[in-house]
Amino acid sequence: MAGSYTSPNSTGSDVPQMVHERLEGLKLLAHHLDEPIVIFNPQMEMVYANPSADELAKDCPLLPSQSTGPADLRFPEQSPCDPCPGTNLFKSSDSRPIISSRPVSLEVPVLCPFPRALPLSGETGTMHFAILMGVRGSDSVLALAKAEEAFVIPDEQALPVHEEASRKIIGESEPIQQLVEMIQLVAASEASVLIQGESGTGKELVAKTVHALSRRRAQPFVVIECSSLPETLLESELFGHVRGAFTGAVADRKGLFEEAEGGTIFLDEISETTPAFQARLLRVLQECEVKPVGSNQSIKVNVRVLSAANQSLEQMVKAKTFRADLYYRLAILPLTVPSLRERQEDIVLLTTHFLKEAIHQHGRPSMTLHPDAQRALVQHSWPGNVRELENVIERAVVTSRTSIIQVSDLFGSRKETHADGDLSTVSQAARREAERGHILQALSRAKGDKTRAARLLKISRSSLYNKLRTYNIT
What we know:
Blueprint: E1 5-6, H1 17-30, E2 37-40, E3 46-49, H2 85-91, E4 98-99, E5 116-121, E6 127-133, H3 140-146, H4 174-187, E7 193-196, H5 203-212, E8 221-225, H6 231-239, H7 256-259, E9 264-268, H8 275-287, E10 289-290, E11 299-300, E12 304-309, H9 313-318, H10 324-330, E13 333-336, H11 347-362, E14 368-369, H12 371-379, H13 385-399, E15 404-405, H14 407-411, H15 423-445, H16 450-457, H17 461-470
Parallel strand pairs: 7-12, 7-13, 8-9, 9-12, 14-15
Antiparallel strand pairs: 1-3, 2-3, 2-6, 4-5, 5-6, 10-11
Helix pairs in contact: 1-4, 4-5, 11-13, 15-16, 16-17
């Protein structure tokens, strides 16, 4: 089983094309992971094994040994480990991931070398494949038994202290289901992850979910918004500084990389950084050490780096506005969060969720959406994506005078058709809609701080106040 292997005959002719496509995407991702990953069909025939699975072939009776040819996909004379997460997954009526249990005695290493099993199901819920994930190193089978809690997928109550981390990624659409599968794979790795997607799609929620499902989840999760700080302050925030390094540095200060020791640091809007800062960040990723501003001494750090961008870093590399070497370091495991336009079937689910949240937060009695209002939400273009939808629902809950939310409560007089207008009228309306969405996004990210929102929008504070009046944003 040297190197990665894909069986040409064991994927099954009855597997839907959609599942085949998702399977191929998972294979491409697994090929670049250091963690051993194998994929089985319901007959427990191996469909795929990545290069890292070689080292565990001797520990799993279902995997061919190093001297075995690709034709030997199974060992009929041998049985799987008991319990085997893969066989248990196919036997279970529940489609949730399965984690193998701890052995009774550590003297007999019966713990399955592939302790986590994830399902790959179709639209009807039929489970077509089991994705088994192992841990690196021959000693990690016993090490896992000694620290089994690090591999248990947490429930909402067990997630980190960040309240947002307990929020589930909501959606039943194909793009979201595929994203969730990718997150589960990525979370098991230690590699850097680049999360790309439009503003308001939920990139920070994805990052928190990756951290919450990782072995680092008990350690800090630190967020830094790269676009909100000038370069000098950004370096000081991330790497720390020593006393006297610059005006106002009256004492030594730890940077966020040190504060995140053992955990995860999330660099939001990494595309907004300068080339000089990118060079320093590249060194941190390469050497796993930081040098505080004004210091000659480096400090070793153990941090996993997640980053996000709302524009294509690949295109920025081609335009020479972002360092290619840093891009490849950050994008070892890339994730793309779909826009709300790509997952319209999730709008009703998201609306129901945000409506319940807003009613509870603002102490309103039970409220419902008028059918016309629900149709308007589904038909809207949502330039601000999920964040804009959340803001619209919250505003409607606060301002509506009745228990039934109307279209006017959601969009006011702005929800108009322009079929009879000329092209300039339509373009102007679209521009105003997009600008209003961006302002709402900035206010949400700044948690209502208008000075910070103006900085994010790169306009003056007075200009922001004028626009707030123009668009009737309170």
